[in-house]
Amino acid sequence: MKKVKLLAVVSSLMFIFLAACQSNEPTSIKLSEVTRSLFYAPQYVALEEGFFEEEGLDVELQTAWGGDKTMTALLSDAADIALVGSETSIYVYAQNSRDYAINFAQLTQTDGTFLVAKEPKPDFTWEDTKDSTFLGQRKGGMPQMVGEFVLKKHGIDPHADLDLQQNIDFANIPGAFVSGDAEYVQLFEPTASTFEKEGKGHIVASFGEESGHVPYTVFMTKQSFIDENKEVVEKFTRAVYKAQAWVQENSAEDIAKSIQPYFEDTELDLLAASIDRYKAQNSFATDPILDEEEWNNLKDIMDEAGELPADVPYEELVNTEIAEEVISD
Predict the structure, then answer these.
(1) 147, 112 in Cβ contact below 8 A?
(2) Residues 6+ apart with CB under 8 A from 140
(3) Residues 271 and 204 in one domain
(4) pTM of the model
(5) More confident residue, 3 or 238
(6) CA-to-CA distance for 294 and 217, rounded, in angstroms?
(7) What is the C-alpha R_g of the chain?
């Protein structure tokens, strides 16, 4: 009898020990980013500075290279969380999806592209783009919609006043600009600054400064994932918020050193200059809350481009409760 009792006690202790070990194991998260961009610096800071790790998360980052591919990964469960433009959640909603993609943590709050001219334009005005060959972005994507919005704001009809080319895949746009006859192009950093340094182009304007605050890049996940893993989403959001604070508190040089492993082919000083450019125009969100004014600005931009499939209420696709809880902790 004593032997049986002893075995029972040992078994119970082993069960408790194993349960404790399992509870300390990090939770794996598959994160899909729409592209690899310096624009997403706070995300890489969260990874490199250990903020996800502090929250007990093991984040596996994958790059999808395109909004449609990113959303496909999310909706097919190839990714748990996606970093992509909020417009994609509206497209999914309009397709009568039963499991919506919910925006829960904002990362960037302006457009991240710059207008790059092939030739120097020291006295550039937007009027200079008229009758030019303009290498645009993917139809229906945020860079293209913001580009059209800004051009129209300056009295330029992008489809009537420009030779607008939109037949190049996102990843191939920089190369097509260098080898082709386009006079203007929209580029993210650090590509824009790299081209300027190498004499391949010249930054003449910022679309982020011209278009105002929008939920340009946001972490989103399916409603079902939030329902089943709310604590995990809270931990993820807390790590993002820590990274946002770190980015605000540290210099462009320190941020560049932190995230350089994600941009090994770019020199440190060029990374720092690009980050400084984004910080100067307040591109990085200071907290993860996506507010209603930004959402409405997004819809206005989509509507102006003829790409708004439905007037989606803010409450339908935006969850601020998690971010608000994290900030109030």
Answers:
(1) no
(2) 87, 91, 305, 307
(3) no
(4) 0.88
(5) 238
(6) 12
(7) 22
Residue with tokens 């192009």: 185
Q: Domain check: are 324 and 225 in the same one?
A: yes
Residues 6+ apart with CB under 8 A from 185: 115, 116, 134, 135, 173, 174, 177, 201
Domain carrying residue 315: 28-110+214-328
Diameter of the chain measured on Cα atoms: 95
**Spatial distance between the Cα atoms of 208 and 307, rounded to a whole number of angstroms:** 20
Q: Are residues 99 and 238 in the same domain?
A: yes
Count of CA atoms in the C-beta half-sphere (13 A) of 56: 12
**What is the residue-averaged pLDDT of the chain?**
92
Q: Which two tokens stand for residue 81?
A: 């969380």
Residue that terminates a domain, selected from 211, 232, 265:
211
**Which residues are registered as beta bridge partners of 102?**
221
- Whether residue 93 is found in the same domain as residue 241: yes
Judgement on whether residues 124 and 202 belong to the same structural domain of the protein? yes
Tell me, yes or no, whether 103 and 122 share the same domain: no
Q: What is the pLDDT confidence band of residue 23, given thresholds at 50, 70 and 90?
A: low
User: 245-266: per-residue pLDDT in tens?
Assistant: 999 999 999 999 999 999 999 9
Do residues 103 and 223 both lie within one domain? yes
